[in-house]
Structures are given as structure tokens and as C-alpha cells.
Write a structure and sequence with these properties.
Largest sheet: 2 strands, antiparallel
Structural class: mainly alpha
Mean pLDDT: 85
Number of domains: 1
Strand content: under 5%
């Protein structure tokens, strides 16, 4: 199912969406924490972005497994990629929580003065963790795809 589109592997196409949307979501969550006034205007957009990228991660991992059958085992990249969903889900949850608290939907939580601070701290931690993990996945993927070609040319100079 997650193999090719017009004869090209789908994995690099989906991965580029994840590589763009996850950092955008991270920056959006951080912006909502730093500027709570932006939650009303941009909160739903950030939460929607978090949802889309969270849904795309399993597509990226499944398509990566299909690609692995053709090009070989990417080693650490596959393991790190499989873990990325566990960093995106907390980011999604905290993005939604920031929006819900801001809109007063969760009145019991919103009335507690410390609740907003706790959600903000957890959101920052989730954003930093997701940022580190997406970097690790991307760096290991670049090494798996290009390490021999680029590294080999640099050594021959």
C-alpha cells in the first residue's frame, strides 16, 4: 500500500511533509506558550498542524519499511523513525490542551492558576523532545541515504 507513486518511492515524499510540518508545529506550540494571546487566533491552526503531522508519521514509517525491502536496512534510522510518533503524540495533546484551556472549554482546569503553567511547561518539554527526535531521525536518514556518496567524495580530495 505505501510503496510508490508513479514509480517513485512514496517515503521521501511523505518524509518531507513530516520534516516541514513537525518543526512548524514545534515552533507554533512554543509561540502559543510564549504569547498566550496568540492562542485564540492561531491555536486551532497549530493543533490542526499537530494532528496532520501525527497522522503522517505512520505513513512515513510504513512507506519506509516498503522502501527498506528495495534498498536495504537503514539501520538506526528505522528505529528512530519508529519512535517519532511517541514524540508527536504528546506535542499534539499539549497543543490541543493549550487551545482548550484558552477557550475555557475545560473550566475546571482553567480555574486552577497552576494548571495553565503546568500545561505550558509540559508543552515546552514536548516541543523540545520532538525537535531533538526529528533531528535525530533526519540526520540518521541522511547518513543512511548519502553517507557513502558524500563522505566518500570528501575523502578523495
Amino acid at each position: 500500500m505505501f510503496d510508490t507513486i508513479n514509480g517513485l518511492p512514496i517515503h521521501p515524499l511523505v518524509v518531507h511533509a513530516v520534516v516541514v510540518l513537525l518543526p512548524v508545529t514545534i515552533l507554533g506550540v512554543l509561540a502559543l506558550v510564549i504569547r498566550p494571546a496568540w492562542r485564540a487566533r492561531y491555536g486551532v491552526l497549530v493543533a490542526a498542524c499537530a494532528l496532520v503531522v501525527t497522522l503522517l508519521i505512520p505513513v512515513a514509517t510504513s512507506s519506509g519499511e516498503s522502501l527498506e525491502k528495495h534498498v536495504g536496512d537503514p539501520g538506526e534510522h528505522a528505529e528512530l523513525g519508529d519512535q517519532l510518533i511517541w514524540f508527536a503524540v504528546p506535542l499534539l495533546i499539549t497543543a490541543v490542551a493549550l487551545v482548550l484551556v484558552d477557550r475555557g472549554i475545560t473550566d475546571r482546569i482553567a480555574r486552577r492558576p497552576l494548571a495553565g503553567t503546568v500545561i505550558s511547561v509540559v508543552a515546552v518539554l514536548a516541543a523540545v523532545a520532538a525537535g531533538v527526535q526529528v533531528y535525530r531521525v533526519g540526520e540518521s536518514g541522511a547518513r543512511a541515504a548519502w553517507g557513502d556518496q558524500v563522505g566518500g567524495q570528501a575523502q578523495h580530495r
